[in-house]
Structure formats: structure tokens, C-alpha cells
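>> received
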Amino acid sequence: MNDFEAVLYMFLTAFFLMGVLPAVFVLLIFHERLSDYGLTLGDWKKDLQVTAFLLILICVVFVYPSSQIQEIRASFPLDKGAGDSISAFLKLQVSRGLLFYSAWEFFFRGFILFGLRKYTGDWMAICIQVIPSSMWHIGMATPEVFSSLGKQSYNKGDMNKARIYLEDAYHKMTNSLDYATNLAKAYYNMREYKKIIQILSAFPESSNPSYEIHLFLGKSHQTLGEYNNDVEIYNKAISHFGIDVNLLNPMGECYNKFGSMDEALAVWEKSLEVNADQPQIKK
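>> returned
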């Protein structure tokens, strides 16, 4: 089963559970009209104009900016082949509108809302139906929320709480450079060097490596006494980002640790050429 077939199965299931079944209850059990639950054309000409205006406004103000967020792009569209062609895109969106969202709107904004309003009033009915419809989105594209909470906790110095949030964000999207880096910062403050190496090791080989990734990996390997790995990390960083005393100095220390004094001196001399005002290196 390909992506579209799986998504179509979900849409059809939703149409039956949220559309057909509630309609059967209304007609055969409640003995009421579907129009009593909001399923009617109404003033369709005016509504079509309002819908077209709001659709454009929502797409420009909300949908397009949201589509640039990394976790949104990773989660949607459900059919990853929808972007391959216009026909694939239209096939997904038409089936989503006709099968999924028509049933969704009838169930939450019709069956539940109109079913409750006679007992609770309009505002309470609106509030109640929002709860289950919002619960549908739990677990969808939430890493950014956890990452934000984690960074706030990190900035406040609460590393334990930061770790919980940042781990949650990272595990929901392990290919995110930002989430991995933020978690590495928390781990570094907590001296969890092996975990830093575990989550960051894949990223230096990526097409868009990060300076911070190399720095955290280098410091972690160095603290654990893994000097050969450390020198390799610093060399990769220098090849990507150029000569930098923050990379040269610890690399010289690594050479010094495993007895390669000639290499250590050469690296430190290069560091002094970049910045002569380093009395600790001159010693």
C-alpha cells in the first residue's frame, strides 16, 4: 500500500465514522432532519464568496508561514508524493475535502455542536466540541512546542526540566539539527558527554554541518579521553569553517595528550598566527 492508498483509507474511514454513522443516528434513531444539525445549503452564494476570501486570507497569513516550519514539513502532507505533480496534489486535496473534512465538519460542527446547543446553549456547545476536535492534533507537529519550553528552562538554568522537554522534541524528530544541538547544550551542562556523542555523531557528515555540532563533539571526545576521534572532528570542522583558535587550541591539546608534540606545536603556532594575544598558548 502506497502513501496515497493509506491516506485514502484513512479518509474513507473518517467519512464513515464521522459522517455516515452520525447521519444514521440523526435520521433513524433521533428521527430528526440533517438540516437540524447544520447540514444544509443555506445562502450558498454568499457563503461561497466569504469562503473564497477567507481561504486566501488563511493561506497567506497562516498556511504558508506554517509550511516553512521544519516539523510541519516533516509531518505533512500525509501523502509524500503529493508534491510530485499537480495531479497528485489535486487528487490528495480533493479527496481530503470531500471525504475527510466534510465528515469532520459535520461531526464536530454539526452533530456534536447542534446536538449540545439545545441543552447547553451556543457558547458552551462551541467550547465542548472544541475539546475532542483539538485532541485529534495531540502528537502532530509538536516538537517545536517542547523545544521552546526546553530552551526557556535552559535559559533559566533548570537543566533537569530542559532535558525532559528537549529530549521529547529531539526524539520526535531525530534528523533535526536544531533539536539535536539544543539537547547537546543541556547534556553538556549536565556532563552527559557520551549522550552528546550518541546524538550528534551523524551530523558532521551531513551536507550542511554545524559549527556547534563539531565543537560539542570535539569537547565531549576530549573530556572522555578519546583524542584520536577528537582530532578527526576538529580537522573536519576546520575544513568546513576555516582556521579558528577555538578549534586549533583544543586540537593541539589532543596531540599533546597522546604525545605528538611536533603536531601540537604546529597547531598552536598556527593558532598564534591567527590571534597572537593568547598568553596561555605561548606558555
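>> The CA atoms of residues 23 and 29 lie 10 Å apart.
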